[in-house]
C-alpha cells in the first residue's frame, strides 16, 4: 500500500468556502473512483488544513506542501500573481452574484411558503384530484400523501416560480458575460488556493 501526491488550484475564497469546495471535489472523486479507501485520490484524505503561508510561485508552494502534508491528509496555501478583476468590476460581479444567491434562496423557500399559506387558510382539509381529502394540519409537503402528486402548487404559484427562474437565468447570463468582458482589464494581484494531498493507494 503506497501513497501518491495530488494537487489542484481552487479560486480565492474564505477558508470555509474552500473546505466546502474541496469536500465537493472529494465527493466527485468518490463517485468516479469508488469508496475504496486506497483509490489513490483526494477522497482518501481528510478535509483541508489551511496553513498561514503565501507564495508567489506555484512550484515553491507545492514543494512546501509536499514537505508538510502526511499520508491521508491535505493542506492549502495561498499563491499570488493571478489575474483579478479591478475593484470596480468586482463590485458589480459581487452584486450580481448576491442577486443570484437571493433568488436561489427564494426558490428554495417557495414550497415552504405554499405550505404555510395552505395551513393558514380557513379550510380544514384540502382535496386532491385523486379524490383524497387531506387534513390541513397534517400537510408536511406539496405531494398528496395518498397519490404522491403535487396538489398544492397553484397555476399562479407556477407562474411566479417560472418568473423567478427566468430572472435567475438572466442574472447568471449577465454574470458570465461580465466576467468574460472583465478578464481583459484584470490586474495581476489576484490569488488562488493551492491544495495538495497525499492519497493512499
Ligand atoms: Zn392525491
Detailed description of the structure:
Helix 3 runs antiparallel to helix 4 (155-182). The strands form two sheets. Strands 1-6-3-2 form a four-stranded mixed β-sheet, sandwiched between helices. The chain has a two-stranded antiparallel sheet with strand order 4-5. It has helices at residues 15-33, 58-68, 87-120, 155-182, and strands spanning 3-11, 49-55, 74-84, 125-127, 133-135, 187-200. The protein has two domains: 3-84 and 187-200, no CATH class; 88-183. It has four helices and six strands. The structure holds zinc ion (ZN). Zinc ion binds at residues 128, 130, 132, 144, 146-147, 149, 151. The site of zinc ion has 8 residues, from loops.
Q: Could you give the topology of this structure?
A:
Elements: E1 3-11, H1 15-33, E2 49-55, H2 58-68, E3 74-84, H3 87-120, E4 125-127, E5 133-135, H4 155-182, E6 187-200
The structure holds zinc ion (ZN).
Zinc ion (ZN) binds at residues 128, 130, 132, 144, 146-147, 149, 151.
DSSP helical segment count:
4
Q: Helicity range of the residues?
A: 40-55%
Helix and strand composition category: alpha+beta
Shape: flat
The strands making up the biggest β-sheet line up spatially as 1-6-3-2
Short characterization:
By secondary structure, this protein is of the alpha+beta class.
Question: Which features characterize this protein?
Answer:
2 domains, 4-stranded mixed beta sheet, flat, 201 residues, 6 strands, 4 helices, binds zinc ion, single chain, two-stranded antiparallel ribbon, alpha+beta
Amino acid at each position: 500500500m503506497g501513497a501518491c501526491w495530488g494537487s489542484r488550484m481552487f479560486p480565492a475564497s474564505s477558508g470555509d468556502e474552500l473546505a466546502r469546495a474541496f469536500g465537493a471535489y472529494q465527493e466527485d472523486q468518490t463517485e468516479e473512483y469508488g469508496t475504496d479507501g486506497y483509490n489513490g485520490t483526494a477522497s482518501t484524505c481528510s478535509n483541508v488544513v489551511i496553513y498561514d503561508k503565501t507564495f508567489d510561485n506555484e512550484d515553491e508552494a507545492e514543494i512546501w506542501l509536499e514537505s508538510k502534508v502526511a499520508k491521508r491528509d491535505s493542506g492549502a496555501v495561498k499563491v499570488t500573481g493571478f489575474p483579478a478583476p479591478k475593484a470596480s468590476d468586482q463590485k458589480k460581479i459581487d452584486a450580481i452574484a448576491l442577486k443570484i444567491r437571493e433568488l436561489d434562496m427564494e426558490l428554495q423557500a417557495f414550497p415552504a411558503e405554499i405550505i404555510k399559506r395552505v395551513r393558514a387558510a380557513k379550510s380544514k382539509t384540502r382535496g386532491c384530484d385523486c379524490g383524497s381529502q387531506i387534513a390541513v394540519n397534517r400537510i408536511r409537503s406539496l405531494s398528496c400523501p395518498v397519490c404522491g402528486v403535487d396538489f398544492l402548487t397553484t397555476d399562479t404559484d407556477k407562474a411566479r416560480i417560472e418568473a423567478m427562474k427566468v430572472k435567475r437565468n438572466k442574472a447568471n447570463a449577465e454574470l458570465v458575460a461580465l466576467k468574460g468582458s472583465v478578464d481583459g482589464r484584470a490586474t495581476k494581484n489576484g490569488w488562488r488556493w493551492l491544495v495538495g494531498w497525499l492519497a493512499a493507494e
